[in-house]
């Protein structure tokens, strides 16, 4: 199929229902589950997939006994499908908001360390000036917000790049540091200690971020420098709310951003341990997709983030 014929086939035959099926297949890797997700019968979904692959001129998924897996070209088609559906969803939400007298939507991803300070102050001022702007905040870790940004499910993010090549896809502007604190609940046996070393803590239970997170990587590097192994008793948790609840109901130790635990320390619900850690953790910043023009509300929100950031102390 020549280039013009391919373009004609795609324009004339691809529908948003087809794109929804592709995304559902990518999520479920199973035709029956994907059909259920978009509310069609499995035979119809099978025909739709055949029509889609015929329009593209190549297979998008490999079929085997373990399920369906995207081909290399299929990954490119799936990325387009996700972008298109995300754009349509944002357009529909924005249109509905305007129909009801609102003023658009802004969707932001943010790591937990940015939420109590920079993000909260910027959102508060934004909403005081534009009360009808619909603001959504998603994510808690850098890998979560980078994935959301990649999938075009958010307009911009506060976080960190998590792999060496992501600078090819995203622009990063540093905003603030994120001091880390080792904390335990107030009744913890270690809470009264005035001197501690990291090697005295590894035998205790720990609540840690997933291994792919920058904070967890930093913790593992600290252990390596001290000649220590990863604690044997750990819970991996990406949720700040769940981490704080687990901390207050167990003998676990956790490493958390100072901005997140500040109020808990003041209320003496948590106690900071006298062990310095995370000094070399790079600051978080503004992440946005390269070469993309943002909406006016998004650009104004970025200006507010810069206003409230600690960039002058960076």
Feature tags:
D-Maltodextrin-Binding Protein, domain 2; 3 domains; 5-stranded mixed beta sheet; Arc Repressor Mutant, subunit A; 11 helices; single chain; 314 residues; alpha/beta
Largest sheet: 5 strands, mixed
Strand element count: 12
CATH architecture of the largest domain: 3-Layer(aba) Sandwich
- How much of the residues is beta strand, in percent? 15-25%
Averaged pLDDT? 87
* N-to-C span: 55 Å
Number of separate structural domains = 3
CATH topology of the largest domain: D-Maltodextrin-Binding Protein, domain 2
CATH class of the largest domain: Alpha Beta
Number of helical stretches of at least 4 residues: 11
Radius of gyration: 23 Å
Order of helices and strands: HHHHEEHEHEHEEEEHEHEHEEH
| Poorly predicted sequence stretches spanning 5 or more consecutive residues | none
Structural class: alpha/beta
Order of strands in the sheet with most strands: 4-3-5-12-6
**Helix share of residues?**
40-55%
Shape: globular
For CATH, the homologous superfamily of the largest domain is named as: Periplasmic binding protein-like II
Can you walk me through this structure?
By secondary structure, this protein is an alpha/beta fold. The protein folds into three domains: 3-82, Orthogonal Bundle (Arc Repressor Mutant, subunit A); 102-177 and 283-313, D-Maltodextrin-Binding Protein, domain 2; 180-272, 3-Layer(aba) Sandwich (D-Maltodextrin-Binding Protein, domain 2). Helix content is 45%, strand content 18%. It has helices spanning 3-13, 16-28, 31-37, 42-56, 72-99, 115-129, 142-150, 214-225, 240-248, 258-266, 296-308, and strands spanning 61-64, 67-70, 105-110, 134-138, 156-159, 170-176, 180-185, 206-208, 234-236, 253-257, 270-272, 284-289. The strands form three sheets. A five-stranded mixed beta sheet has the order 4-3-5-12-6, sandwiched between helices. The chain has a five-stranded mixed beta sheet with strand order 9-8-10-7-11, sandwiched between helices. A two-stranded antiparallel sheet has the order 1-2. Helix 6 (115-129) links the parallel strand 3 (105-110) and strand 4 (134-138). Helix 3 (31-37) crosses helix 4. The mean pLDDT is 87. One of its GO terms (molecular function) is DNA-binding transcription factor activity. It comes from Candidatus Burkholderia verschuerenii.
């Amino acid at each position: 199929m020549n280039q013009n014929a391919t373009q004609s086939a795609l324009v004339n035959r691809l529908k948003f229902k087809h794109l929804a099926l592709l995304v559902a297949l990518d999520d479920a890797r199973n035709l029956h589950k994907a059909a259920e997700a978009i509310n069609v019968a499995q035979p119809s979904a099978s025909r739709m997939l055949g029509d889609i692959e015929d329009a593209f001129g190549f297979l998008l998924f490999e079929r085997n006994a373990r399920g369906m897996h995207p081909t290399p070209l299929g990954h490119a088609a799936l990325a387009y499908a996700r972008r298109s559906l995300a754009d349509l969803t944002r357009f529909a939400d924005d249109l509905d908001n305007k129909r009801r007298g609102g003023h658009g939507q802004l969707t932001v991803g943010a790591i937990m360390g940015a939420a109590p300070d920079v993000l909260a102050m910027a959102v508060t001022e934004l909403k005081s000036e534009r009360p009808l702007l619909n603001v959504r905040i998603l994510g808690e870790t850098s890998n979560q917000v980078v994935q959301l940004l990649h999938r075009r499910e958010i307009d911009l993010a506060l976080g960190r790049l998590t792999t060496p090549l992501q600078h090819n896809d995203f622009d990063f502007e540093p905003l603030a540091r994120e001091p880390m604190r080792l904390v335990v609940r107030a009744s913890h046996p270690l809470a009264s200690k005035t001197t501690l070393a990291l090697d005295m803590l590894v035998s205790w239970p720990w609540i840690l971020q997933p291994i792919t997170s920058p904070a967890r990587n930093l913790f593992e590097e600290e252990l390596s420098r001290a000649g220590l192994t990863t604690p044997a008793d750990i819970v991996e948790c990406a949720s700040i709310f769940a981490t704080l609840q687990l901390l207050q109901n167990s003998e676990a130790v956790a490493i958390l951003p100072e901005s997140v635990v500040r109020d808990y320390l003041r209320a003496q619900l948590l106690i900071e341990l006298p062990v310095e850690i995370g000094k070399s953790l790079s600051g978080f910043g503004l992440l946005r997709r390269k070469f993309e023009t943002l909406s006016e509300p998004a650009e104004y929100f970025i200006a507010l983030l810069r206003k409230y950031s600690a960039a002058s102390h960076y």
